[in-house]
Amino acid sequence: MEFPFDVDALFPERITVLDQHLRPPARRPGTTTPARVDLQQQIMTIIDELGKASAKAQNLSAPITSASRMQSNRHVVYILKDSSGRPAGKGAIIGFIKVGYKKLFVLDDREAHNEVEPLCILDFYIHESVQRHGHGRELFQYMLQKERVEPHQLAIDRPSQKLLKFLNKHYNLETTVPQVNNFVIFEGFFAHQHPPARKLPPKRAEGDIKPYSSSDREFLKVAVEPPWPLNRAPRRATPPAHPPPRSSSLGNSPERGPLRPFVPEQELLRSLRLCPPHPTARLLLAADPGGSPAQRRRTSSLPRSEESRY
Description:
This protein has 10 helices and 9 strands. The protein is of the alpha+beta class. Strand 4 (about 105) and strand 5 (about 115) form a beta hairpin.
């Protein structure tokens, strides 16, 4: 593909890499360019013409590669030039390949959705007059080395039949994983993909337990043994077939525990009388003007006639 300006001077190397800024590459030492020449405008013209030629070759209604699209997206274009054929000493363009990273939802072999961001082949074109000369493989291999990716790690946007045959011939990419979008991925695409980290729900606080939760149900299942003697289950009186002879000894019964020694009632009352009164009781008796409680009882029990005497 020829242009009315010097392509060989614009692109010093055989393969030129351009990003969204479309800045001209560094020029060779000693190369002069008229001050009025806009090098960026020349680059934009080349990209626009390459996009039109690629759309025509793929039977597309509109180009998918243009200078304006390059400036509005973070894509990278690799341009291959022909230095041998120099019509009028200006050089020519052989073809280009456009790549970029995109966030995609793709299906794996188990038809599970995966969110990935692979390097995608967005456009690929080699001029019809120089096809089947190894230029496409040269450009594609240079891109793989520059981007540091393997062919099976790529996702191709709406590849043509020529591109699919090209990938099968040079990189043995044949088996595809069916997708629901326009991108094509090949077997082995997920071999080097890192699995997404699972997001676990936040741990609930200890006190934040809803009623009738599983924790409560598990707690209620645990039977708590009551204290003695409530833990003794009542036994049903089952008459034995041959009742044993009665024994007059109370100590032979296995159901009774040890008995405390019997304390006579008189001895218990005598011990209560000998107990010293509490200090608080002494203070109350001293502060009471009516005397002791026994004295008040004796006074209140007298007849009214005797009370009047005092």
